[in-house]
Amino acid sequence: MTELAALTTRARNIFAHLVEAYLETGGPIGSKNLADMVDEKLSPASIRSAMAELEAMGLLYAPHVSAGRLPTDNGLRLFIDGMMQSGDLSPEERAAMTPHLTGDESMEDMLKQAVQGLSGLSACAGLVVVPLAERAVKHIEFVAISEEQILVILVDDTNHVENRLIPRPPGLAPQKLIEAGNYLNHRLRGRTLGELRRDSEAESAKLEGALGQMTADLIKRGLIRDTAKTAMSNSDMVAKSLIVHGRDHLLDDVAAMEDLERVRHLFADLDRQKELVSLLSEAETGNGVKIFIGAQTPLFSLSGSSLIIGPYQDDSRSLVGVVGVIAPTRTDYARLIPMVDHTAKLVSDILSRHGS
What we know:
Layout lengths: L8 H17 L5 H7 L6 H13 L3 E2 L8 E2 L1 H10 L8 H7 L9 H16 L2 E7 L5 E8 L4 E8 L4 E7 L6 H15 L4 H10 L1 H8 L1 H11 L7 E3 L6 E6 L11 H15 L1 H9 L8 E4 L11 E9 L5 E10 L4 H23 L1
Antiparallel strand pairs: 1-2, 3-8, 3-11, 4-5, 5-6, 6-7, 9-10, 10-11
């Protein structure tokens, strides 16, 4: 990808004004219009020459032979990363994005409220990836499938089924597996797997007294969220689930048939949750807002959309999910980036207080 340092001062000036004009109008920008925008006095011919260089570098393209130029996805990336100044949220905007909580909400309910506020203020489709460990568990069962392995079956309140294979302690009788399942199901009552795990850790002595150390260790092992090697699932989404709010925003300002086709592709993309959750999980590898622009991600290559997402943390300061928006490739990034960043930090703060 082209580095900003590779551009001359003149090319950088022309490029910045062209992208800003594109983000405002959505149409191709010609040399005559740019001549009125740039800081220095340049002829349309000089600007056309600079635009040709930018096009050769893969930063601009011409949608039609006689048209002006538009930024490519790589061009937008260069502008956002190196030239754009993000705005600040007003106190009113921050207040509008703050969930109104009573203290009795589940983690998923809190996340839904947060993404609803983000979607409403940004006028984009909001999304959040929720750890399945924080969805309410309806049933849990331990089944011996061999002398060496036990299958742990977890069913949450949305009837999502998650199966895990864990090692079977030598000498553990099948009856102990039934007792372990009964012990947990008696204590479920709509609580999350994370809460069950924390309760089991806090009540370790009581658990060992009731069921024995071997069975207590089995329960703890079955509640640990470690799905990288041993977990299986009907949907292959063993660790995450996706909530999308405000899909109707994706239909706003649709003025042409190609835009309708773009939205159709986008709705199809959203239904491919396995790929989307996998993509979003990439944002959990570090702090800060991340942006996936158009064809820079295979998932949205046809729909001309961008993802703006930021990771959030739980009470242990571990990165557990992401929150963000789906927007058209031509969007107000300077406004949306601080919104997503604020929401991610807001969710982290809520979860920190919720878990403490």
